[in-house]
C-alpha cells in the first residue's frame, strides 16, 4: 500500500463479527489495489475485532472508539483519518463485487465535476428474495429525486475528499438514521452526483440494522419522520426558495407515509397539487433541470396511484428491512 492511497474505504462496525469477515474479504479481492481499508470498531462486545485481526494485509487499519459512540461518530472519524483522494463507503455485512472500486475510480477520474458516485445494489434476504435497487444515472434526475427520498444506497457510494473538505461537509448527528441522506442533499447543492447503472454491491437486508431497528419501533419511526420533514424542508428551501409550512410538508410526506399505512384520497390529491406547485416553483427558480424535474415529479405522482395488496406488502417489507 502506498503512503497516500488513492482510495480510503470506510467500514464502521458494531458487533458485526458474524459477517464482517466476508465484507473485508470482498474489499481485499478488488481488482483495484491502491486503497486503504479503515475499520472503525464502535465498542463491539462480540468477535468483531478478532474477525478483523485474522486478515494479514497492510492495507487494513483498525480504529477503535472509546465505547459505543454511534454510526455518525464512526463515519466522521473515518473521514478525518482517511488519506485517500476518494472515500468509499462499505458496511460490515455487505459484499462488494470485485470490480466495484475500479469502476468508481475510473468514473470519478473521468468526471471531475462529480463529487458523489453510487451504483445499483443487489439486495438480498438470506435464504429469501433478491431484487435490484436501481436509480437514475444522470446528475439532474438524482438531484431532483433527492427532494423525495435518497436514490443512493449508502454502502455503494464513493465521495471526492476535496468536496467534503472545501465545503466542510460531514455526516450530521442532528439527522440520526438519515445522516447519509442529509449529506447527499448537502453535496448535491455544491457538486455533481451520479450513479453507475450496474450492480457493484450485494446488500444484506436485515432487521438488526440501524434503520431496520427504527422501523420496528413506532416511536422511533415517528421521530424519523419528523427528522425527514426537517431534511425535506431544508432542501426545498435551498433549491426552490420555498419555506414549506406544516400542511405542505404533510403533503410532501405522503409519498413516505404510503410505504407503511393507507393514505386517504384527499391527502393523495393534496400531494398531487403540491407536486404541481413544486414544478411551478422550479420553473421560476430553475435550480433543477426542467425535463429531469418533470420526470421525477411524474414518477412521484404515479407512485400515489393505488397499488395491489401484493405490491403494498412488498413496499412495506422493503421499508422495514432496509438499512
Radius of gyration (Å)? 20 Å
Mean pLDDT: 91
Tell me the structural class: alpha/beta
Number of helices: 14
Number of strands: 9
Biggest sheet overview: 9 strands, mixed
Query: What fold name goes in the CATH topology slot of the largest domain?
Result: Spore Coat Polysaccharide Biosynthesis Protein SpsA, Chain A
Beta fraction of the residues?
15-25%
From the spread of the alpha carbons, the general shape counts as globular
* CATH homologous superfamily heading of the largest domain: Spore Coat Polysaccharide Biosynthesis Protein SpsA, Chain A
Number of domains: 2
N-to-C SSE string, H for helix and E for strand: EHEHEHEEHEEHEHHEHHHHHHH
What is the end-to-end distance?
31 Å
Level-1 CATH class name of the largest domain: Alpha Beta
Contiguous uncertain segments of 5+ residues: none
Per CATH, the architecture of the largest domain is Alpha-Beta Complex
| Helical residues, percent | 40-55%
Commentary on this structure:
Strands 1, 2, 3, 4, 5, 6, 7, 8 and 9 form a nine-stranded mixed beta sheet that branches. The protein folds into two domains: about 5-205, Spore Coat Polysaccharide Biosynthesis Protein SpsA, Chain A, CATH 3.90.550.10; about 210-320, no CATH class. About 40% of the residues are buried. By secondary structure, it is α/β, with parallel strands linked by helices. The mean pLDDT is about 90. Helix 5 (about 140-145) crosses helix 13 (about 290-305) and helix 10 (about 245-250) packs across helix 12. The protein has helices at about 20-30, 50-55, 70-80, 100-110, 140-145, 160-165, 180-190, 210-215, 220-240, 245-250, 255, 265-285, 290-305, 310-320, and strands at about 5-15, 35-40, 60-65, 85-90, 95, 115-125, 130-135, 160, 190-205. The protein has 14 helices and nine strands.
Amino acid at each position: 500500500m502506498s503512503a497516500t492511497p488513492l482510495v480510503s474505504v470506510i467500514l464502521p462496525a458494531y458487533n458485526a463479527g458474524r459477517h464482517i469477515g466476508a465484507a473485508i474479504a470482498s474489499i481485499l479481492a478488488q481488482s483495484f489495489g491502491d486503497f486503504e481499508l479503515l475499520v472503525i470498531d464502535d465498542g463491539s462486545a462480540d468477535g468483531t475485532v478478532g474477525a478483523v485481526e485474522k486478515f494479514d494485509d497492510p492495507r487494513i487499519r483498525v480504529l477503535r472508539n472509546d465505547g459505543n459512540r454511534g454510526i455518525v461518530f464512526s463515519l466522521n472519524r473515518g473521514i478525518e483519518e482517511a488519506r485517500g483522494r476518494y472515500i468509499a463507503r462499505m458496511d460490515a455485512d455487505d459484499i462488494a463485487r470485485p470490480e466495484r472500486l475500479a469502476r468508481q475510480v475510473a468514473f470519478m477520474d473521468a468526471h471531475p465535476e462529480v463529487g458523489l458516485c453510487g451504483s445499483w445494489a443487489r439486495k438480498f434476504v438470506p435464504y429469501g428474495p433478491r431484487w435490484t435497487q436501481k436509480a437514475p444515472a444522470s446528475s439532474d434526475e438524482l438531484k431532483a429525486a433527492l427532494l423525495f427520498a435518497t436514490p443512493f444506497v449508502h454502502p455503494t457510494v464513493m465521495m471526492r475528499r476535496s468536496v467534503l473538505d472545501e465545503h466542510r461537509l460531514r455526516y450530521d448527528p442532528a439527522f440520526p438514521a438519515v445522516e447519509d441522506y442529509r449529506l447527499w442533499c448537502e453535496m448535491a447543492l455544491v457538486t455533481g452526483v451520479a450513479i453507475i447503472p450496474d450492480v457493484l454491491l450485494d446488500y444484506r437486508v436485515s432487521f438488526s440494522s440501524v434503520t431496520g431497528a427504527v422501523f420496528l419501533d413506532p416511536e422511533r419511526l415517528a421521530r424519523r419522520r419528523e427528522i425527514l420533514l426537517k431534511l425535506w424542508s431544508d432542501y426545498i428551501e435551498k433549491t426552490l426558495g420555498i419555506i414549506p409550512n406544516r400542511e405542505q410538508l404533510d403533503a410532501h410526506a405522503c409519498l413516505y407515509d404510503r410505504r407503511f399505512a393507507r393514505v386517504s384520497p384527499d391527502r393523495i390529491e393534496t400531494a398531487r397539487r403540491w407536486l404541481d406547485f413544486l414544478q411551478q416553483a422550479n420553473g421560476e427558480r430553475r435550480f433543477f433541470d426542467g425535463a429531469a424535474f418533470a420526470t421525477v415529479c411524474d414518477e412521484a405522482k404515479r407512485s400515489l396511484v393505488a397499488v395491489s395488496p401484493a405490491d403494498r406488502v412488498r413496499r412495506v417489507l422493503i421499508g422495514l428491512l432496509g438499512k
